[in-house]
## 1
Amino acid sequence: MVNSPRRIQREQEILAATRVLFDERGLRDAQIEDIAKAVGINRAIIYRHFNGKEELFAMTLVGYLNELDAALSLDDHPEGDPTERLRRVTGAFLEFGETYPAFVDCAHSLLRRRGDELMAEISEAVMFRLGRSMTACLNHVVEALEAGVKSGDFEVRDPFLLANIFYNQALGGLNLARLQLTVREGNPGLPTVDQVSFDEVKSYIVEGAVAMARGVGAQTL
């Protein structure tokens, strides 16, 4: 199907309304009916532009990822020390996720699906755009890892795989940062709950990324 200017405009209106509702209410509370109402259309029209809710969410995630790429670019200094570069990029990713919790939820909603299920629900064109936007973000980490391998600071056989692992770990860590609670054993057999700040979680994740890039575990990747 040829995308007319009017069709493209309508898709952008739907995506903009979805993004606003995600940022205001979160992914769970943003209903298709609310998105349609914000655009001034019937919900059935949304499904003329997107194969389903998952494809709409995927395209919304593309928007988040494009903004994330721009944010990472501001903190990524290719000429700098690879270790500090990795720290800065990882930290910028976490700060973006902390600023936009719906980005984390949107990313998780797609990651929870099996690949074959996702491919059945999302068109090839949308999967291509999603992959391209995600790769642009991951490349900041990949290039930092490759620079570290070249300088002898890191030992990583597959920087792309490790970058994907970092991406998933950081999303999980952001859930903990949002919860701001940890569980530990106070007295034997008695669990207690402690408060944890975003900065504490961020510090562990950033230094964990550096340790994985340097450590023995990274040599097998």
Note: The first helix runs from residue 5 to 25.
## 2
Amino acid sequence: MEWMAWTSLTATFFVCIGVLLACMTVWELRSPSIARRGFLPIATSRGDRLFIGLLGSAFLHLLVIGATDWSIWVASLLSLVWLLLLMRWG
């Protein structure tokens, strides 16, 4: 593991993603989702919206890092809002 600079923030990020995936798995097993249409142009299930949200959050972070001088916390807050909006109305 010496090839990567593991910080507490990096570890927390990956732990949160793991917990999120575990919670979504339990939720899906207890209450299977039905594909629906929201503001996205395709019918999606909860898992689809989570994947799209995480992918969009990654691109949002890259955009903030590459194109602005904002703090990474701004990108994280925007990503959280994006994920919540997508999960609810996507």
Note: The chain has a mean pLDDT of 89.
## 3
Amino acid sequence: MPEAKIAPHDLEAERAVLGGILLYGDRISEVVETLEPRFFYLPKHERIYTVMLSLFKQGIPIDYILVRAELEKRGWLGGTDGKVYLSELAMDVSAVTNIRYYAQLVEDRYRVRQVMDASGMVYDKVSGDPISGEKASEILQRAAADVAIERVQRKLSPISDVTLEAVESAEAIAAGIKKTPGIPTGFIELDKRTQGLHPGELIIVGARPSVGKTSLMLDIARNVAQQNTGVLIFSIEMSKTELGNRLVAAQTPISLKSLRAGQISPQTRYAIHEAQEQLAQMPIYIDESPRLRPIELLAKARLACAQFKIQLIMVDYIQLMEYPKKSENRQQEMTAISRSLKAIARELNVTLVAFSQLTRASEQQNRRPRLSDLRETGSLEQDADLVLFLHNPEMHSKSKSEKPNIPIQCILAKQRNGPTGTFMLMFQRAFTSFKNAAEGEQERLPDWVTNETED
């Protein structure tokens, strides 16, 4: 057999991963599903990562002191030298933003070592006794398959596990042990039809301008955050100051107009401060980047998910996003953006709600929005798991209503895992906020609402 060589490894990448986790313990959530202790080349690195995984699975925050204590408890610290080495890892800031990349390098070097080990085993088998070339080739193929099968098995789930999980979940919900899998939005009819917001799904909310897309976004964000669920908002259209005004107005009996004009009485001043204190307790985070590309959204969302346990991401609105590669037309760019958003929802296992402008067709023809109004905006219709349209029938009427509450038709035009249909929400004009329709108002929807068909 040829002279043995040092097995491929990348100690810098291994140190970067461990150092990044020691500095920011929550970052382990970014690699825990793909990186295993045996992937590390140095035994002491394997032991350190094993301890980190143990703390993570117990729900214990990961930091230098706790990792050192657990290593010492298991007899893995190695005295003074071990303490010094661990402290040096904790000072390595190189992986703070690239921990996933370094983790991939660690796994890649492990896979190469696997191939080398398999090759060595094949060499030992075929060099001892003379065998045919066909037999040698068969042994080589089997060894290569053994290396590949381990990685494939980690991504495959047998149907028995999948179906058992589905049945157990349904039984737990029926018994009241477990809530429905989705996150409630706070809007009764929407939750009844969708069972809430589900991780991994891309939801498109479309409407013509000034119908209430941003208002609905903030209402859902508040309702979800009140359940102590992290929400991340990418506001490309409005500044965080504008969103702050809307959030406070929606949380108080004070109109947005009065709030912005500073028309505050002693009574309303108390209400404003009380609303601010309530909002301050909600895990809502806002990014007001005026220019946003999918790769930037992913990087920011990934970090926020690790730090703040984000489960809902909202983008207002999708047509204002940019794509780095120039395409022949905007439709191709929107197709790429749409598919990127769906991939982000799946990768981060969050619900991603993207708000969308619609084509002018519905406005010009004085009709309700339909799926065909999304077709000029790339593949939104195909990529979305759920499409919801907002429609104000009175918007383009010659005699515009000045009623304080405006009935808005919510058209559930597509849902992969549930029914479609139409329901109503009431838009509170003064507070730019939605509320559930009162009992009996849902029945007032005209017959043509449910009978209209798609082109």
Note: Residues 99-128 form the longest helix (30 residues).
## 4
Amino acid sequence: MKVGILNLGLSNLFSIASSIKRLGAEVILLESLTYSVDAFIFPGVGNFTEGIRRVQSIRDALQSYIKSGQPFLGVCLGMQMLFERSEEGPGTGLRVFKGEVRRLQAAKVPHMGWNRINPVKPSPITEDIKPGEYVYFMHSYAPQPKDERIVLALTNYEVDFPSIIGEKSVFGTQFHPEKSGQTGEKILRNFLNLSKR
């Protein structure tokens, strides 16, 4: 299996590439979408506006891939850019999902460290994930989808926010599965298994 990981200089890709390799897949770091892959991961850390600026040259290709029905996973900022806009700054997101990204309503931001995820509906990506399992977060903003049906898991940090979203073959995690131990590994394995269905 070939897994493409988008390299826009928005995150350190070593951890996520290593995690995917441990699961037995070949990793291909991509700066464009000209290479054929079985699944695609869009990781990111940093500012929404800068992320959207860097993705402009491949925006159409990225949206075409998402519409193709092949497995797609956005991680952290990569998940946020699937929405329409963000309070963090100007720029139009990829608009895969309706809604916007808003600043966390908590006394201490950023939300950094381990916290629980609680699945709220069945999904292939949350298979074998039990309520209360811990994953690793590092963010100040989180999406607020207009359609609550895409929310697959919630996390509480003074208020509830979506920590996993998904519809059909497109998924997003607000946490970093590659830094989340066995729980993160299960989620990545579930994601890779989507390409075998």
Note: The mean pLDDT is 95.
